[in-house]
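Entry 14. Two folds queued back to back today. First construct below, sequence then structure tokens.
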Amino acid sequence: MKKVFILSMMAVFARAVTSCNDNDDYTQITEVYASKVDSVQIPLDTMAVGVTQELRVYSTFTKTCEGIYSYDYNYTNDSVRTVANFGFKTNEACGDGTYVDGSRINFKPVKTGTYTFKFWTGKDAAGANTYIEKKVAVL
């Protein structure tokens, strides 16, 4: 009985020691930022009310240390949508080169009209936001 008690106490002690181990050898996201949009794919520029289509929004990232995090989709008014990709940076060393990744956004209009999509491409020399603009007619 004494041996069982000693072995169980050693197991509890070993578990306590390993669960408190501060191991920083894993990748951590250190920054989330607005990533400029490089290109956009909108399959249909004319569609019907209630039909869903997938918009693809692409940005370029540095290999190994960056990637797509999410996107932001804002209604400016009934017919204008502003879209931005968000990227992340990790504590990994960046690799050589870049790669393209992006967001998929489902668009399902509920009324007719022309929708204008503005995809954020960064800022100009004066500090003003710039956009790629695409229009979709909904019949």
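Second construct, same run, same settings:
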Amino acid sequence: MSRIGKLPVNFASDIKVSTNGDVITFAKGKNSVDLDTKGNVDFSVESSTLSFTSKSDEKAHRAFWGTYRALAQNIVTGLTDGYTKELEINGVGYRAAVKGRVLNLQLGFSHDINFDLPEGIEANVEKNLITLKGHDKQALGQAAAEIRAFRPPEPYKGKGVKYKQEHIVRKAGKTAKK
């Protein structure tokens, strides 16, 4: 039995939850997110709780049970509180700026990198800190990973783009001959 799957997903009264076949739609204000269960789990909505049950005793259905419950909880958390990722830029001359829906990065290349922000993701830049905010956890993590991939931190000087809480394991440089 899934320890995560059997927990109900509680949501506030301002979140509207509707079902259409195997698709669960969560809506709050102008934001709306669909979760397609593809017929892998059974679910029921009562007042302000959403409960999932396994379709059968097959291993795949039991795995989907906890997965879809966690995805639903992430959607509810995203619509109520939102998610935030912080990236830190380290390096001489490395800069970032937001121009509309485009994040402009100067990361030591001969050209600037213009990253188009996905729908629903907002960026804010203060000095060397990029703050990404959004209600979709997966899209936010993907955008942060793509920005980090432009110039991952290197182990000798620590230059590059890293997550704020990430620890870079440093290596010793060359040693002089005696």
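Quick look at the second one. The mean pLDDT is 92. The longest strand covers residues 83-90.
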